[in-house]
UniProtKB/TrEMBL annotation:
NAD(+) binds at residues 171-178, 257. Its cofactor is FAD. Keywords: FAD, Flavoprotein, NAD, Nucleotide-binding. Transmembrane segments: none annotated. Pfam families: Pyr_redox_2 (PF07992), Pyr_redox_dim (PF02852). Residues 332-432 form the Pyridine nucleotide-disulphide oxidoreductase dimerisation domain. Belongs to the class-I pyridine nucleotide-disulfide oxidoreductase family. This is Glutathione reductase.
Length: 440
């Protein structure tokens, strides 16, 4: 049996962030990947999504500027946009795999499963690791209804040769809101099927209401309180049905959350799990002390995002190289790249509501110079400050370019730069950053 210092299962952002520093430190590292090297984010997640979003963003910007002298709204040519995306994604798996082998690691293609706490099998081969890192990510949840096999996922959406004329998304979280915007701007009739009446539960209600209003203006249809019971093939596409509800579309995509699959045989290594993923301690150790888990596969409070998986990967590498501290996450920003962007970081107004230690400052910035210049339909900025220290501890930004301001506020939060220090800085003018003079 081949022996390694560290075996990493999963060649995505989490696994690779752990593997590289360990190899650089001289450890003998094996990485196993069953599908596309690079994982979800660069192959069928964040990166391809944001490439499609680039054209959508440009089109929306142009449409807004028709009121300011720009003539005509450009059309999106889906096959050409897809070719643009594929020109990037097709290089990812080979490029990632050769990066792994080029750094002196062993790359194995296939599905890993545990034999015991220190041994995994891939096909007929077995490998023993002093330590093992699980970084296997999550898979889309499909509704347990008749016709489930007809339902596609975000991965299919992000690689479609042609855009269907009528599409539906089941769920109203990140994936649905982002892909609905792309589909609608690219010319499809879009329906969002919600089993409740609240989209994007992790984001403040007023920000989500502004986003949904913008989506409705873009002719995206929301169907609330619908518990789907079946999907069936009909002459011109698919029929979705629920009690008192039917809808005919050409494609339907599940966007109902993502969960780990159970192909790893974790029970053989006595690794505890629950419905949200693998249970870990403050060192990201599983119930088997030499087995760690990182990234989306973990049950955790931190959001399941690419930079978080990378942070955890680097943390476990340092831990295995001798660092003793438990993991401490910085404030983590997250953005919904929708018809409007909603970005948030740190403490939310809801979390500090009624707590006199905090001040919440909200400004509707729609008519400010910055957002008027780009003819935004809606913009707002909320900053949460600690009263005694003037430290910025949270922010929410809604606009068509919210990510850049929230990243700046994330820097202020994590470097503990108080609001009065931010006011002493000079930012390029006119810009979203220079507006901070009036926001903190
Ligand atoms: C449509 C979409 C859009 C997203 N957009 C964003 C975004 O804008 N920003 C953001 O921060 N995050 C985004 N995410 C989330 C982001 O993709 C994940 O948080 C990130 O990829 C998690 O990294 P990971 O390494 O934990 O898992 P993954 O990237 O999923 O990698 C896990 C790897 O493990 C492999 N694997 C699984 N089981 C086995 C096994 N038994 N043996 C061997 N290999 C195995 C898988 O094939 C996969 O390659 C998006 C996700 C989706 C689906
Ligand atoms: N911009 C980003 O950072 C980004 C983008 C996409 C995905 N992601 C990551 O991927 C994860 C998965 O995204 P997602 O949108 O699939 O999940 P999500 O958890 O964001 O949203 C799931 C949605 O499905 C709904 N839902 C659950 N069960 C349902 C049912 N039976 N019928 C109808 N609706 C149902 C929920 O109410 C919710 O609206 C995110 O949580 C995030 O970690 C991040």
């Amino acid at each position: 049996m081949q022996q390694y210092d560290v075996i990493v299962i999963g060649g995505g952002p989490g696994g690779l962030a752990a593997a590289y520093p360990l190899a650089q430190a001289g450890k003998k590292v094996l990485v196993v990947e069953r599908d596309l090297w690079g994982g979800t984010c660069p192959n069928y997640g964040c990166d391809p999504k944001k490439m499609l979003y680039s054209a959508v963003q440009a089109k929306s910007y142009a449409a807004r500027m028709t009121s300011a002298g720009l003539n005509g709204i450009p059309d999106i040519n889906w096959p050409k946009l897809m070719a643009f995306k594929r020109a990037y994604t097709r290089t990812v798996p080979n490029g990632t795999r050769s990066g792994v082998t080029g750094a002196g690691m062993i790359a194995v293609d296939g599905e890993a499963r545990f034999i015991d706490e220190r041994t995994i099998a891939v096909g007929q081969d077995q490998y023993e690791g002093q330590d093992i890192i699980i970084a296997t990510g999550v898979q889309p949840v499909l509704p347990n209804i008749r016709g489930q096999e007809l339902i596609k996922t975000s991965r299919d959406f992000l690689d479609m040769d042609q855009l269907p004329q009528r599409v539906a998304f089941i769920g109203a979280g990140y994936v649905s809101m982002e892909l609905a915007n792309i589909a609608a701007e690219a010319g499809a009739e879009v329906h969002v099927i919600m089993h409740g009446d609240r989209a994007l539960r992790a984001f403040p209600e007023d920000a989500v209401t502004a986003l949904q209003k913008a989506m409705k203006n873009a002719h995206i249809h929301f169907h609330e309180n619908i518990e789907l019971t079946s999907v069936e093939q009909v002459t011109h596409g698919l029929r979705l049905a629920a009690k008192g509800f039917t809808l005919d579309v050409q494609q339907v995509f599940a966007a109902m959350g993502r969960r780990p699959d159970d192909q790893l045989h974790l029970n053989r290594a006595h690794i505890k799990t629950n419905a949200h993923g693998i249970v870990v301690n403050e060192f990201l150790q599983t119930s088997a002390p030499h087995v760690y888990a990182i990234g989306d596969v973990v049950d955790k409070k931190a959001p399941k995002l690419t930079p978080v998986a990378g942070f955890e990967g680097r943390y476990v590498a340092e831990h295995l190289l001798g660092a003793k501290a438990s993991i401490r996450y910085p404030a983590i920003p997250t953005t919904v790249y929708g018809t409007l962007e909603i970005s948030k970081v740190g403490l939310s107004p809801a979390e500090v509501a009624g707590d006199a230690r905090y001040i919440v400052k909200t400004e509707n910035t729609t008519h400010w110079y910055t957002y008027n210049r780009t003819q935004e339909s809606f913009a707002s900025v909320t900053v949460v400050e600690e009263r005694a220290t003037k430290l910025i501890v949270g922010a929410i930004v809604v606009s068509s370019s919210a990510e850049s301001l929230v990243n700046l506020l994330t820097l202020a939060i994590n470097t503990k730069t108080p609001a009065d220090q931010v006011l002493k800085m000079i930012f390029a003018y006119p810009s979203e950053a220079s507006d901070l003079d009036y926001l903190v």
